Amino acid sequence: MNKTLYLTTPIYYINGSPHLGHAYTSIIADVIARAHRLFGKDVFFLTGTDEHGQKIVEAAQKSGSPLAHFIDARAQEFKEMNTLLNISNSNFIRTSSDLHKKVVTEIITSIYSNGDIYAGTYRGLYCVGCEAYYSKDDLIDGNRCPTHQQEVRELEEDTYFFKLGKYQDKLLEYYEKNPNFILPQTRFSEIYNRVKAGLDDLSITRTSFDWGVRFPFDHKHVLYVWVDALCNYISGLDGIKTSTFARFWPPDVQIIGKDISWFHTVIWPALLLSAGISLPKQVLIHGWWTVEGDKMSKTLGNVIDPFEMSREYGSDVFRFYLMYNAHMGSDSNFSLAELKQQNNAVLANNIGNLVSRVVTLLNQYCNGTIPMITEFDPEEKKFIEIIKDNKKYVDEISSYTIRNALFDVIEKFAELNKYITDRKPWDDFKQSNKSRGEKTLAMICESIRFLSLQLDPFIPIKAQEIRKSLGTMNINLDFDFKYSAGSKVLAEKRILFAKLE
Ligand code: MSP
């Protein structure tokens, strides 16, 4: 049986439409999912929407639509974003679904039965945007949320607490035993030290609103939206006692933004420890995007819309740009000028031009057919070995440094460009050295096919178009000239990547 890989994105709040941040998290996950499928893994890729809580109710009221219509329409928008960006998720979980609510109730019942929930009152400063309490020290000027910049509200309510503090030692032990649990490494010590400093118990129910999952032991309360939401990683596998759960749990990697690392590396593992469920293996934390140097925000009117980007430049160009600049450990800055410049330099010049150059030469000198070669020269054989060596690519993908994997493929394309320029096959054909010219072109065609497979996870549509141009459609990671020899290439020249002005 194939090895499995279970990976997740956060589930997205539906109070607003999908934006660059959501697209980014989902594309990272999609690249990892597609690459691992290529390596032969049995992949389950979960994403979805986070639909409960005060801010969703407020957004629905503001929109003037009934809540049920509002959440359906917004969830649909996120599904459309996935289709447009070619996100290859296996399931899409919505927290308003009956299945999800049932699973949350089961998990919270185990935690309760384990004696880890008790009644109390809570007073604190609450940010509706984050759906989280803050201590005064963490706020800007003592009253504004560091993420949303908006004023927090003072809330006092009867609540039930989860004994988070009880799990401090067990969490520390898990981190120590699994030093790669939190990636990139630079984020590890930040979390470790905060947990080491001590953990307060966590208020996990609310009485101030009722749009959520009822707390099964006191119906005046609904569950805190974060506890509800985190359980999606289990309801997305159809719940605990299911064959999907048995096959895929625990997650191999949970991909999240830096703002929600506490929930995923501390609260979620503690809830799982209490419920007696094994812990996720890794959490991959990415930085945030600013836009042309500013924080992306509705107020500044600089929110990047993935729909508009895909319409304007094509989803693969958008995907490529985000992945080419995806610094995991730090923030990145979105710039349209840079998107255009990188499209022109890397996609159009380095990759697209090479493909169209080879297609033109084959049409001109080889009857539009990739020549059959029985024996390559030593110089070619040496070069084939360089192209064939995909260890670095596989290692980079497997350790989730996917940007480096992309750089590695692009570098190989640059080597191919250099090779064709040095070998000048057009001269060979003109000077009746046909066999040498044929060997060069055959070698380059097969190299392009091979490398295009490694581009698949990043630019799935364009990578396939590359293979179509060469008439070589096999989807496997084999490097074998038998596959492409005799293939008919496209008769007419086609521009794979248009230059952007
Ligand atoms: N609903 C919660 C997650 C619950 S998971 C159990 C949530 N949703 S969110 O819609 O606000 O954010 C989802 C993801 O988008 C997060 O990983 C967040 O980091 C990411 N981003 C939001 N804005 C972003 C940028 N400007 N740049 C990059 N990613 C950003 O949090």
Give structural notes:
- The strands form 4 sheets. A 6-stranded parallel beta sheet has the order 3-2-1-11-12-7, with helices on both faces. Strands 5-4-6-8 form a 4-stranded antiparallel beta sheet. Strands 14-13-15 form a 3-stranded mixed beta sheet.
- With 501 residues, it is of the alpha/beta class.
- It contains 19 helices and 15 strands.
- 5'-O-[(L-methionyl)-sulphamoyl]adenosine (MSP) binds next to strand 1, helix 1, helix 7 and strand 11.
Using brief descriptors, characterize the structure shown.
single chain, 501 residues, alpha/beta, 6-stranded parallel sheet, 4-stranded antiparallel sheet, 14% strand, binds 5'-O-[(L-methionyl)-sulphamoyl]adenosine
Helix content: 40-55%
Number of helices: 19
- How would you characterize the largest beta sheet? 6 strands, parallel
Query: What small ligands are held by the chains?
Result: 5'-O-[(L-methionyl)-sulphamoyl]adenosine
Spans of at least 5 consecutive residues with low confidence? none
Mean pLDDT: 94
What structural category arises from helix and sheet content?
Answer: alpha/beta
